[in-house]
Amino acid sequence: MTKQSVRKVEIENAKSPGRTERVDADKYEAMKAAMLAVLPQAAPGLTVAETKASLLPILPEALFPEGAKAGWWLKAVQLDLEAKGIIAREETKPLRLVRLR
After folding, report:
1. 97, 71 contact by CB (below 8 A)
2. What pLDDT, on a 0 to 100 scale, did the predictor assign at position 40?
3. Mean pLDDT of 33-58
4. β partners of residue 71
5. pLDDT exceeds 80 at position 66
6. Above 80 in pLDDT, residue 54?
7. Which of 11, 23, 28, 51 could form a disulfide with 80 if both were Cys (CB 3.0 to 4.6 A apart)?
8. Rounded Cα gap, residues 79 and 76, in angstroms
9. Is the pLDDT of residue 3 over 60?
10. ∠13-11-71 over CA atoms, to 5°?
11. Predicted model pTM
12. 71-95: per-residue pLDDT in tens?
């Protein structure tokens, strides 16, 4: 049996500058698209919990069956998009996220 090749993408981490990870490109792209679809461009933004609740219904079931691992992917993509300046966190309690572009 041959192992199926999984396309990878390199992501950054806003909390660990210079450190990168290679992750499944299909899951990354699906989560990124869902996040950008639900995050507003203006304050007050969405909490991480609100973001997750909003994007779960639009994630592909084939990649995230019943929302499996969505929390991990949400955080990984959040930190990557922050590092790239695509989204930002508002320093509120709880933390809120907004889309910059």
Report:
1. no
2. 97
3. 96
4. none
5. yes
6. yes
7. 11
8. 5
9. no
10. 75
11. 0.91
12. 999 999 999 999 999 999 998 999 9
Query: Which residue blocks in the chain are alpha helix, DSSP H?
Result: 25-38, 48-55, 70-83
Q: What is the pLDDT of residue 1?
A: 43
Give 71-76 contacts, CB < 8 A, sequence gap 24+: 73/27, 73/28, 73/31, 74/31, 74/35, 74/48, 75/48, 76/11, 76/21, 76/23, 76/28, 76/31
d(CA 97, CA 41): 9
Structure-token pair, residue 40: 């507003």
Amino acid identity of residue 88, one-letter, is A
End-to-end, the C-alpha distance of the chain in Å comes to 44
Q: What is the mean pLDDT of the chain?
A: 94
- Residue of 81, 83, 66, 63 lying closest to 6 (CA atoms): 63
Which amino acid type is present at position 76?
A
Name which of 22, 24, 26 is nearest 11 in CA terms.
Answer: 22
Q: What is the DSSP letter of 31?
A: H
Residue written as tokens 């698209």? 33
Tokens coding 100: 């910059």
Q: Rg (Cα) of the chain, in Å, rounded?
A: 14
